[in-house]
Amino acid sequence: MAEGGSVTLEELRKKLEDFGRVRNWEQHHTPRNLVLALVGEVGELAEIFQWKGEVARGIPDWEEEEKQHLGEELSDVLLYLVRLSDMCGVDLGKAALRKIKLNGIKYPAPVSDVENHEGSNSGVKEEQL
């Protein structure tokens, strides 16, 4: 992983596995314990937004310290989710792509919206999912 570059779910999974193993935490990383810890972290994330009302995209009015705290709580949620998926034998990336595809079937885009976005540079076409 290059400094400042993208990180894959697999890299996170491996780092978490190593982190837990060297601390002998694997015995505590049961699916039940991990999901309960995940819920606790989601609560901490929600607490950040609890009294802020609606927040603008990009959180432009937030202080740098608040943004850093948000990043830490988002990271806690992500890390517990990655560890939980690993302990359950679920390939989270594949499961997420499958879920997006299923949601596309369940909630098809209106024809006018599809036509408006065909020229977008998102790089991902629905049939690729």
UniProtKB/TrEMBL annotation:
A GO cellular component annotated for this chain's UniProt record is: cytosol
Which Pfam family, any one, appears in the UniProt record?
MazG
Q: Name one GO molecular function term.
A: dCTP diphosphatase activity
Question: Which keywords fit this entry according to its UniProt record?
Answer: Cytoplasm, Hydrolase, Magnesium, Metal-binding
For this protein, what is the EC number?
3.6.1.12
Please give the subunit comment from the record: Homotetramer.
Q: What is the official name of this protein in its record?
A: dCTP pyrophosphatase 1
